[in-house]
DNA sequence: GTCTACAAGATTGTTAACAATCCTCCTACA
DNA sequence: TGTAGGAGGATTGTTAACAATCTTGTAGAC
């Protein structure tokens, strides 16, 4: 597998993934020549990619001092989650208005799998399914502006997403909350869906706040 | 005033302003050499600035075909307003929790000026004051994540912000709604503040929907 | 032993030139 | 008359070299 020549968009996606999956760690310096060599492209491309990632909140650049992976503090992670609550509640509302039968079937399928995971104590798969479910809801809402905001918020806080589900009693609660959200969407009740999603994510916020206190 | 040499940040801000204030019109092509000459910098700088503005939603770039000012359709403007509603409600909630006496005084001052504008029928000044008031509320919330989202949303939809206030009966209603928001913030009632802000912006959304139907 | 000054290396910022691509307009041909 | 093809110009994409800035390590003064 030789090093291919990559265009800007591909470089952007790869670098973004490296930051999100932790290949590049928070506060790690991003040296242009380094990245250019690793991605098989020139410095100019890396430069514009870094600018984009800064605008997206994944990277910090300082004049004459280069770029580094942005470190998101626990306080910031909470802020991000609060903002997500606002956006996802909106998306749940629209999903209740615009979801098609296929969308709802997919949600129920994922929910059933999540149920199985909790019974088996497989919290890693549960987290993945949870992310997938939220994505399906976002897509069912057919609201690109909100979906876009959510995606950038999500990418900034991936490192904190596994924490809350580990709190004692959380899995069962979380499952019930998701159930309420999907039931409201299935009967096309926007108010109930928004309310249920807000309740769900407020619960997550609260858990995260308590976790922060503990440590 | 000779052409100064400008660094990236300055170029970014200037170009951004040109787009927001309409100096550069929607769908207008952004030619790198052109902008470089106008801003007194090189193509490389312009290139990264355009990448940032694309990520911010103010510019669209197509490979090998350059960049243009993004045209925001009325449908999208509505989506943006809906997202703003979610974010600003959150900010109102936090403003109610964290506003200091100075913040509240500033809000009341702006509200009084808005009152005067409505009486004199000066809707242009009213719009400006309206923007300023929302900004003060956002700052009083001390929630940088939400504030940042709001700023990018706002910049995308400036072209539509003057429309709704022109609807018959809107100024008086708008004034009353702002009054309710600020009263809730002043007595530090987060639920009421969030609710009042949501009601206010939902009203704006509704007006915009009706305006769209009309035309 | 600690601090300052300075030199060397590393990294970013800027410029210019070249290559690749796209767009426009003109011509030739059916 | 209308359409395919191609030449030329305009614009973007890429590369390399150079300039400016920062960082690091070392030597010398106190």
TrEMBL record, chains A, B:
UniProtKB keywords: DNA-binding, Transcription, Transcription regulation
Source domain of life: Bacteria
Ranges of residues in domain HTH gntR-type: 5-72
GO molecular function terms noted in the UniProt entry: DNA binding; DNA-binding transcription factor activity
Designated name of the protein: GntR family transcriptional regulator
Matches recorded under Pfam families: FCD (PF07729), GntR (PF00392)
UniProt entry tagged with the keyword DNA-binding: yes
Signal sequence, renumbered to the chain: none
InterPro entries the UniProt entry points to: GntR_C, TF_FadR/GntR_C, Tscrpt_reg_HTH_GntR, WH-like_DNA-bd_sf, WH_DNA-bd_sf
PROSITE patterns, A to Z: HTH_GNTR
Source organism phylogeny: Bacteria, Bacillati, Chloroflexota, Ktedonobacteria, Thermogemmatisporales
